[in-house]
């Protein structure tokens, strides 16, 4: 073993420490020189290392017509001829060699050279493709993304068999070295949109990217807003449809959640199933989601306003019933509503964090028992339980989980305004909400498009979904190159 080769191998093992998964082997080739083989058993496939790398090195023999003197043999060329491995690259220096080793490569350290041959023998342990647990579907594909980036790329490739589909990979995170992939359709996605995504991704300087949420926080336009500015989904069919609309996707290794953007407010009421149903059914479902959104954010605030400040708006029989129910309640309507809403949020969070078997039972039993007990004890009124139930059910209608959280944040804000100023405070909240939505942008696209600014052709797929023969043009608000479908 030459001194320089020994130094490089020693420096690599020294940097990795006394890790039990570091394997280092000295191999004597038939050509008369020695090489060192380095790999990590936690990342590398031992069978591939033995069959594709070590065995050819140990048992390869030179052909008689190509025999040379030992001092004339070029080790690098000799190794490349003997090792039959498709993904092979040369590394130069310590840092590049360590990066390849930590990426699941097997290193062959060459004599008298400060370089190595790196073969990708990464052991890919992954779960099978199955239906996403957070995005159930009635009609449509039931495949979901997994934690392996390559498998996720294949799920998109399977649906978009086009040479226009482009994947650009980059590594983000100085410590995690996470592979991130930018996906778009060339000629359909706007060049300025792709450039903006690429610029924001390359501007990320951090030591760790463990999930796509890390990426989302770095590249979103505005931080101080409850509204999501990127779509987060586990469904390959949804991402494929977004790419065909001229949007851009970001895939992160190690998570099944894929981001896509730009995102507008009215897309929050659209689900992938809308395009697997007839146009009239899809339109009805969108209206139901919009009504559920209004119920979720306004019902508690309206109850507080009317009961506390504007009793004259209620019919006399209903007013008498509410007064009778609240006769023994010791709290004002605002405190009563806050108490019940916070209790329900605690039950919801407990149901999510508990083991799956016990989670649903705790949520259902807790809600029923606590609600009934609170009414019988006179802590809250029966009408308040109805209000909380309507609000909670409406929150679950949202097709995007992050938008459901947004609804709950707005809901509490409106409740506070209604408790302080009644309907006047509620109208002020609506005004500020509309101004906020109109001022938001998602990668240069106005959040309230296609209404502010106005894109009349895009109305065909907003409040209603017209039949597919009339959806011949892609959304203009994304300003893509090819507008016809």
Instruction: Characterize the biggest β-sheet.
Output: 5 strands, antiparallel
Structural class: alpha+beta
- Total number of beta strands: 12
Question: What string, H for helix and E for strand, traces the elements in order?
Answer: HEEHHEHEEHEEHHEHEEHHHHHHEE
User: What would you call the shape?
Assistant: elongated
In terms of topology, how is this protein built?
Elements: H1 3-16, E1 22-28, E2 34-40, H2 46-59, H3 75-82, E3 88-92, H4 94-102, E4 105-109, E5 115-120, H5 149-159, E6 165-172, E7 178-185, H6 191-202, H7 212-219, E8 231-233, H8 236-244, E9 248-252, E10 258-261, H9 279-308, H10 316-325, H11 333-353, H12 356-376, H13 382-395, H14 401-439, E11 441-442, E12 445-446
Antiparallel strand pairs: 1-2, 2-4, 3-5, 4-5, 6-7, 7-9, 8-10, 9-10, 11-12
Helix pairs in contact: 5-8, 9-13, 9-14, 11-12, 11-13, 11-14
């Amino acid at each position: 073993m030459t001194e320089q080769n020994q130094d490089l191998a020693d420096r690599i093992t020294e940097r990795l420490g006394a890790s039990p998964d570091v394997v280092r082997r000295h191999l004597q080739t038939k050509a008369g020189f020695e090489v060192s083989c380095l790999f990590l058993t936690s990342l590398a496939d031992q069978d591939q290392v033995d069959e594709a790398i070590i065995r050819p090195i140990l048992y390869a023999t030179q052909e008689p017509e190509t025999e040379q003197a030992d001092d004339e043999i070029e080790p690098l060329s000799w190794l490349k001829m003997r090792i039959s491995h498709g993904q092979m690259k040369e590394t130069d220096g310590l840092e590049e060699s360590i990066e390849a080793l930590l990426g699941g490569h097997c290193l062959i350290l060459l004599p008298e050279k400060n370089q190595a041959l790196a073969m990708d023998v990464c052991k890919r342990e992954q779960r099978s493709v199955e239906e996403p647990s957070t995005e159930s579907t009635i009609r449509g594909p039931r495949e979901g993304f997994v934690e392996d980036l390559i498998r996720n790329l294949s799920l998109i490739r399977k649906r978009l068999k086009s040479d226009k589909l482009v994947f650009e990979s980059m590594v983000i995170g100085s410590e995690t070295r996470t592979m991130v992939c930018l996906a778009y359709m060339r000629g359909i996605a706007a060049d300025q949109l792709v450039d903006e995504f690429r610029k924001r991704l390359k501007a990320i300087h951090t030591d760790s990217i463990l999930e796509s949420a890390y990426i989302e926080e770095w590249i979103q336009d505005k931080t101080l807003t409850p509204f999501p500015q990127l779509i987060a989904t586990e469904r390959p069919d949804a991402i494929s449809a977004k790419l065909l609309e001229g949007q851009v996707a970001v895939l992160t290794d190690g998570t099944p959640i894929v981001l896509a953007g730009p995102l507008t407010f009215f897309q929050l009421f659209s689900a992938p199933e809308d395009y697997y149903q007839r146009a009239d059914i899809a339109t009805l479902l969108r209206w139901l989601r919009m009504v559920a959104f209004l119920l979720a954010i306004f019902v508690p605030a309206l109850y507080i306003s009317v009961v506390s400040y504007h009793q004259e708006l209620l019919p006399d029989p209903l007013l008498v019933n509410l007064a009778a129910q609240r006769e023994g309640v010791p709290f004002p309507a605002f405190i009563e509503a806050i108490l019940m809403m916070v209790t329900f949020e605690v039950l919801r969070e407990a149901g999510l964090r508990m083991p799956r078997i016990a989670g649903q039972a705790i949520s259902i039993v807790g809600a029923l028992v606590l609600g009934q007990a609170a009414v019988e004890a006179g802590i809250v009124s029966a009408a308040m339980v109805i209000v909380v139930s309507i609000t909670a059910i409406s929150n679950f209608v949202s097709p995007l989980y992050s938008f459901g959280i947004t609804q709950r944040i707005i809901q509490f804000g409106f409740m506070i305004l209604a408790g302080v100023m009644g309907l006047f405070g509620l109208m002020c909240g609506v005004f500020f909400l509309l101004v906020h939505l109109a001022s938001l942008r998602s990668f240069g696209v106005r959040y309230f498009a296609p209404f502010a600014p106005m894109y009349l052709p895009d109305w065909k797929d907003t409040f209603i979904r017209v039949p597919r023969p009339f959806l011949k043009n892609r959304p203009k608000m994304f300003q893509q190159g090819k507008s016809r479908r």
